[in-house]
Design goal:
The protein is built from 15 helices and ten strands. It is of the alpha/beta class and 428 residues long. The protein has three domains: 174 residues, Beta Polymerase, domain 2, CATH 3.30.460; 129 residues, Rossmann fold (3-Layer(aba) Sandwich); 74 residues. A six-stranded parallel β-sheet has the order 7-6-5-8-9-10. It has a four-stranded antiparallel β-sheet with strand order 2-3-1-4, with helices on both faces. Strand 2 and strand 3 form a beta hairpin. Helix 7 packs across helix 11. The longest helix is centred in the last third of the chain and has 27 residues. The two termini are 55 Å apart.
Length: 428
Amino acid sequence: MGVVSRSTGPYDTPEPIEEKGVAPELVMIGASYKSADIAFRESLARAVSPGHVLRSLASAKEVALLSTCNRFELYLTSTSPEETLAAFYEAVAAKTGAKGVRERFYQARGAGAVNHLFRVASGLESVVVGEPQILSQVRAAGISSRKEGTAGAVLGPLFDRAYRVGTRIRGEFGFEREDASLSDMAVEAAVSLSPKSRTVMLIGTGKMARLAARKLAKPTTRFYVSTRRKVPPRGLQSAVIVPYSGIRKAAKKCDLIISATTVDRPLLMRNDLKGRSRKIVIDLGLPRNVSPDVRSLPNVRLFDLDDIAEIAASREPPVAVKEAELEASREAHDFHDWLVQTRLSSALADLYSWADAVRVEELEHAFSRLDLKSDRDRRVLEAMGRRIVSKILSRPTKFARRKHDTLSEEKKLELLKSVFGAESSDGR
């Protein structure tokens, strides 16, 4: 597949940048199935709520949280990122009681943070490349942070752009497959490990239940479905509906159990599954739906999210992955350049502040020497001063925002500050 064209166009209208002389930095910190085991991710899911994270990061200017079954990622802007990260680590250690917290997280800053989110949205960081659910989760995280008032001029456009890039890359590189999800991988594993299953229990409904019904259904197969619904999901009309209170009793009758639901504590314990009959249990929940000590039972083979990730890692990735990664990187650097020009640099803001201070000073000097007869005369002079400032700075601003073959965005902005002396303390 050839290189595809990148999307272009304005992102949105610039908003005020940080206070004069202090440029915020974009930071991502996360823990996923690649860096931390399921027990630690489970403790994060249980102990670290979005509200707690925000309260512990007073030094952060903007914050957005992306939390899924396989990842916990925080995106933020801060004028003192080291202080912000130290506060985050301290808060996580206090809430989870875990040791070696720093080693379980990964970080990225600037264009690297943008690139990571674009890869996540495109399905390039998922257990199964192209996994579809993460795209909607990225979008939901952006919307949620805006509603909570924690995402603004940087993170709002960032998450919007990540959703658009993820949607395009998935379509153009063929990642929009129906079978690219953990549920599909789990059902495939179940079929390969237990091809002769006769009694199947599904805990939770949705896509997993439909896949199981299609791939496991045989004339001799009997399904139990534990759900809060009063009617079975599509494709499982003949299934026996089991209330949560009856899960343990039904589990004793089943040789295959697949669970993916949100619970505070395990639904199945060791004593619920021990016996002579062989069972395969696939637990896709976080927190886990099945107690991990079930692994010690000789008659049970348990697979959790980390086990499914190991199965996925043994498979060959799609052939278009490398090209998709390059495209995500290009998009990320383009977007980060825009952020630097309009959001993450105080240089342009300092330049305009300096010019406006000069305008005000000279106007006051002129007013003190002129015998102005009306407020209208003052307004005319003030408007003239603002127009002069705008016209003088229009070319430097275009220079800063125009792509350049040899100068980076940061170099151009620093050059402007040096030329105009906007960083000097006396305003001259």
